[in-house]
Amino acid sequence: MNLLIDKLPETVEIDGLQYPINTDFRISILFEQLLADASLTEQEKLLQALRLYYPMIPTNIPEAIEQILWFYRCGKEQKAVVEDKSSAAVFDYDYDDQYIYAAYLDQYGIDLQDINHLHWWKFKAMFAGLKEDNKLCKIMSYRAMDIPGDMPKAQKEFYKKMKKLYEIPLSQAQQDKLSEIEAVLLGDGNLNGIL
What we know:
- The protein is mostly helical.
- It contains 8 helices and 2 strands; from the N terminus they run E-E-H-H-H-H-H-H-H-H.
- The chain has a two-stranded antiparallel sheet.
- A hairpin with a 2-residue loop joins strand 1 (11-14) and strand 2 (17-20).
- The longest helix is centred in the last third of the chain and has 15 residues, at 172-186.
- 10% of the residues are buried.
């Protein structure tokens, strides 16, 4: 799928039939938030994802989920990722909502509140194309920056301060998990069932 020459999809094919899919960027942001919601079971997440994307839920649920993931990835193959536990998220749709809103308004003249519909694939392409001097991009670079030991002290302190200032807070579920671990470590030290 090529954004420059192919029409953006409004449907997905499942078992030879075309099913309309909700393409607005808000749906895919909700989907991403849904996946991160630790209060829901995997089954609840799947059901809510189906309801988000499909006005009429297909009968072939496994293929319907595959098509959601294909759409969410903007028709691109999933890249193999080496998981790095030290790498933190560089943006969060909830926490950075004002920066994202301002970035689209400033760079593209798009008011994300007033626009009735913006295709997810267009939204993602524009997000990827945000200029480096944009406040959101600066914040993301602070969050992603590794601070090497040989960096000059003043520069190191500045970047540490920026990382702390723009740090994405932990979700309530993450905070609860850390509190449980802390209580165990201060108590009997038995982490079984927590990790």
